[in-house]
Amino acid sequence: MKSRLMLAHGFALLTILSAMTASNADDTFGQSIVLPQNPNAWINSGPISTQAMAGKSVVLYFFEEGCPRCRENWPAVEAAVMQNQTKPVMLIAVNSGSSPAEVAQYVKRNRLKIPVIIDQDRSLEKQAGVGTISLNNIFQAYLIDGEGNSRRMSGGDIPAAMQAAAQTASWNVDPVGIPPTMIPLWRQIEFGNYAPAAKSLTRFRRDRKPDVKAAAERLQSYVDDKIAIALSEAESAVAADDSWLAFKKYEEVNEHFAGYELPDVVDSELNRLADDGLVAKELAGRKLWRLAQSIIESGRAKPARVTAMMSKIIKDHPGTEAARMAADIQ
């Protein structure tokens, strides 16, 4: 029993850490929803950010895994997802209150392919105001539309919820004209997974089929625009003499657009800024912050140890971003 309580406590702390990181990156949906940015809180997907969902709609489907009616409803839910796969709307299933192992087993047993969030501490459930999901409240739906508005929907009628979601949403790159073989690549780029898409995009740009090559060039143009915007933000931070923000912006360009042709200024600015005293101080604090996250993820997160690590971050790296986040947790 003690080990289970420790695991639950550790996961809850990790959720807090991830939420703090997400808040710092403005990863919020609708009026009050903060999706977890910890990869371990997701099944069948990596963390989904606000930037990736800009202009699109999201339906959060909260479900009770112990409910036979919920299990019987999955084919209809997944059918609704398939019917809307060319529309700018995504369904994300959310399980609240169960352990990661229990949710993983449930997803595997029911062969679910949709993204699933493990909401072990019920924080997402509380944010959405759908009530405590249980055998007395087996499923609920929560819609965040393309304009950022949010409202509860009927969890028993997912097709209607997704239809409503699609009405105010739009694609960044319209899928019309994208060959079927390129749809997986298009979805990667559409949802902001630029780096994993780089190799395939390069290959399709060399394809001999005119329609494939044209579609690939259209996707490349979209990525190029995103790179230009990201570089402009980094340059603005440099001009404002905000070395830490500039470093993070160039770092994001380097990571998010790995595999694409980037200007030499990205590497040169990262090297220059890394020698800045303020940046060096921030990086040292961030290193310890990430170590705390890794310890919690490992399941060895005893409350006293986590508290001590937060105190050390605050003491050894005062004034840093990491220290501010550590203070908020304490």
TrEMBL record:
Residues 46-148 form the Alkyl hydroperoxide reductase subunit C/ Thiol specific antioxidant domain. The keyword Phosphoprotein does not apply. Keywords: Signal. One of its GO terms (molecular function) is antioxidant activity. The keyword Nuclease does not apply. Residues 1-25 form the signal peptide. InterPro entries: AhpC/TSA (IPR000866), Thioredoxin-like_sf (IPR036249), Thioredoxin_ResA/DsbE_sf (IPR050553). This is Thiol-disulfide oxidoreductase ResA. It comes from Rubripirellula amarantea. The lineage of its organism: Bacteria, Pseudomonadati, Planctomycetota, Planctomycetia, Pirellulales.
